[in-house]
């Protein structure tokens, strides 16, 4: 299956990153970040959107008590900061590199609007992409609020299957090659790192899945 990297056959990086366009090549450069570097903070000006050339970025916010809520962990080719396109003036979230070698392609909002005005079909796809992303975020937040930890994990695995899974013809199992560490997964479903390991092992004992590194295999059910 296609991940967000190719959304309905649209490679967002190829279409959006200004260095792909002659009129922007001379003035455009990539931004490099190390692990734990912030790309922007809550309340920063929202005047750019960003595409990930390589590495991983965590999107989240802090509750009143100072606890961190992780909204998304994004990887190569994905877009973030997109609320700036919709008219947001300040950020209501932070973006932080969680990889030791993250490279980001920044796109000014004015440049983005110019690209969108020049191509109506492309503009439609961008808005559809943003709607798709908001829908995924809303579903994840509902899980955090209303579901127990095991159900949250099962729903998250189902989401991974949609984004990164494919059928293994030999065994009939569903193979998911995803970009997340167990720590990433724990942050996304709101549990501790030890808890995610316990839950995965429970599902393994129940013969629901097997896992190794960044691969999850949902096992074919037998009668």
TrEMBL record:
Record has Transferase as a keyword: yes
Alphabetical list of Pfam families matching this protein: cNMP_binding, HTH_Crp_2
Keyword line: DNA-binding, Kinase, Transcription, Transcription regulation, Transferase
Molecular function terms from GO: DNA binding; DNA-binding transcription factor activity; kinase activity
Family annotation (PROSITE patterns): CNMP_BINDING_3, HTH_CRP_2
The Cyclic nucleotide-binding domain, residue ranges: 12-91
Source species, domain of life: Bacteria
Domain spans labelled HTH crp-type: 147-222
Any single GO CC term annotated in Swiss-Prot or TrEMBL for this entry: cytosol
Protein name per UniProt: cAMP-binding domain of CRP or a regulatory subunit of cAMP-dependent protein kinases
């Amino acid at each position: 299956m296609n991940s967000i990297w190719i959304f309905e056959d649209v490679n967002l990086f190829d279409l959006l990153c200004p260095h792909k366009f002659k009129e922007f090549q001379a003035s455009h450069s990539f931004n490099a970040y190390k692990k734990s570097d912030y790309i922007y903070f809550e309340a920063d000006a929202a005047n750019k959107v960003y595409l990930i050339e390589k590495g991983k970025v965590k999107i989240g916010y802090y509750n009143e008590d100072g606890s961190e809520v992780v909204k998304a962990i994004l990887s190569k080719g994905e877009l973030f900061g997109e609320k700036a396109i919709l008219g947001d003036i300040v950020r209501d979230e932070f973006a932080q590199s969680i990889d030791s070698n993250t490279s980001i392609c920044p796109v000014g909002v004015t440049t983005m609007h110019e690209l969108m005005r020049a191509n109506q079909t492309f503009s439609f796809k961008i808005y559809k992409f943003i709607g798709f992303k908001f829908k995924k975020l809303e579903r994840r937040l509902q899980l955090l609020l209303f579901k127990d930890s095991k159900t949250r994990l099962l729903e998250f695995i189902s989401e991974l299957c949609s984004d990164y899974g494919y059928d293994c013809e030999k065994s009939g199992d569903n193979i998911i090659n995803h970009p997340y560490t167990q720590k990433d997964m724990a942050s996304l479903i709101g549990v501790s790192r030890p808890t995610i390991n316990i839950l995965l092992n429970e599902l393994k004992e129940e013969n629901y899945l097997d896992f190794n590194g960044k691969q999850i295999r949902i096992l074919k059910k037998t009668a």
